[in-house]
Amino acid sequence: MATPQITLERVKELVRREQERYEAEHPKSKQMFEEARNNLVGGVPMSWMRIWVGGFPVFVEKAEGVHITDVDGHNYLDLCLGDTGGLCGHAHPRITEAIYEQIKNRGTTTMLPTEDSIWVGKELERRFKLPCWQILMTATDANRMALKAAREYTGRRLILAFNGTYHGSVDETLCVNIMGYLINAPGLMGPIVEDPSVMTRMIEFNDVDALEEALAPQDVACVITEPVLTNVGIIKPEPGYHDALRELTRKYGTLLLIDETHSMCAGPRGVTGEMDLDPDIFVVGKFIAGGYPAAALGFTREISDWMAARQPWHVFFGFGGTLSGNATAVAGIRAALEHALNDDNFKRMIKLATRMEEGLAAVIREHELEWYVARIGCRVEFRFLPQAPRNGAEALFADVPYNAVDLIEEGLTGPLEVLIHLYCANRGILLTPVHEMALVGPTTTEGEVDKYVGVVGELVKELVAG
Ligand SMILES: Cc1ncc(COP(=O)(O)O)c(C=O)c1O
Q1: How far is the CA of 15 from the centre of ligand 1 (A)?
Q2: Are residues 241 and 273 in the same domain?
Q3: Whether residue 113 is found in the same domain as residue 222
Q4: Does residue 285 line the site of ligand 1, with CB under 6 A?
C-alpha cells in the first residue's frame, strides 16, 4: 500500500459495505443487467460498459448536461462524460438542434458533401493549422486511416508508439513493451500477429535518446502520440521533448501524428495550439460532434496533394467507410465547435477544474497521503503514487499497487479504485471507470466540484480512521 495509514483490510471492509448499498439501491439496473446477459456479450452492448464497478453498470434513463438519471431514479453528477465523448455536455441544446434539423429536414447521409463541410474544414485549419481534412466516424477509424496513409506515403512499414498508450482499437498500437519484449495487448483473441515488432516499434515517452535510436534506421513511417499522455494517467512531456520529437522525426523522414482525442480538454485548440506543435497528421474524435459519432483527421498540404494525386485517389480502399463524412456528423461538428468547444466554455471549465485540482490536493495534504493529483485543462485525476510517472512503464508498473492478487481478482481495477468508484456512485457521482479521472463540462457548477472534493475527503477520513 503506497500510503501506510490505509490498510487493505480497511479498504475491503468498506468495499463490502458500499457494494451492499449499491446492490440494494439499484434493483432495476441489476435486473436489466441479468436480462441483458441473455443476448448481449457480457450483458452490455459494448465491452467498456462492463468495466464499471459494482458487478453491473447503472442503466441510463436520461443524460442531460453533466447529469445522468438511471432507471432506479438516481440522479448523478457525471464526471465521466462518456470517457470524453460527452465533453460538450449530454444533449447540448445547440448541437442537438443542428443534428435534429439535419436529420429531420435535410437527410442523414447521402454520400454527397454539404456546405457545412467547407465551414468545418476552415475552422479546423484555424484551430490546428493543418490545411486539409477528412471526416470519419470515430477516432479509431481516423488513426487507422492515418497510419495507412503514412505507410503508403513513406513507403515504410513500422509505426512508432509509446508504451502504455491507447489510440483506439488500432492493432499497431495495441501492444505493450514489457522489459524489452513487445507483446500484443490485450491478447483477448490471441496474438494479432505472432511478432508485433513487424508492425510496431515501442519505446518510452520522454526519452529522447531512445527516440533517436528508434528512428535512426529510417524504417519508421509514423510516430503516433498524444501530446500529453492520458491513458496511463496524465503524463506531461518534459521541457524540450516535443521539440526533439519534431526535430528527430524530420531528420529521419518519419511523419508525426498527434492524437488529441482526449487531450483537447486542454483548450479550444488542444495541446497542439497551446504548445504550438507542428504535426504532419492530426486526429481528434469522441466529443468533436458533441458525442455524435465523428472524428476529424488533418493532413499537411503535401500529404493531401499526394493523396489527391493518386490515380484514382478516391478509390483509396480501406479508408473510413460509407458513412464517413456524412452530413449529420458534419453538422454536429460545426455546432460543437461553434457552441460548445469555444473559448468562453473552456475558460470556465478550466477554472473549475483548477478548483477541483486544488481541492483534491488539499485532501491529500491534510491526510499526508502518498498520492498526487494531475490536471490537463478540464481533466483532473488523482493516483496512488507519490509523484507523476515520466512514462508508460513507470505508470503501468509503479502503481500495480499494493496487491497484485487483488488486482487480478477485480479485473483491471484494484480494490482501492473499486472503493472510490462505488463510494462516489452511492453518493450521486459517476467517475470514469478504471481511472480516478473527472471531467468538468460546460454546465458543471462550483457547488458540484466542491461536492465531489467533499465526497473524496469523507472517504479518505473513513479510510484512515480504520
Ligand atoms: C487518445 C485516444 N485516441 C483514440 C481513441 C479512440 O477513440 P474511439 O474509441 O472513439 O474510436 C481513444 C479512446 O479512448 C483515445 O483515448
Answers
A1: 30
A2: yes
A3: yes
A4: yes
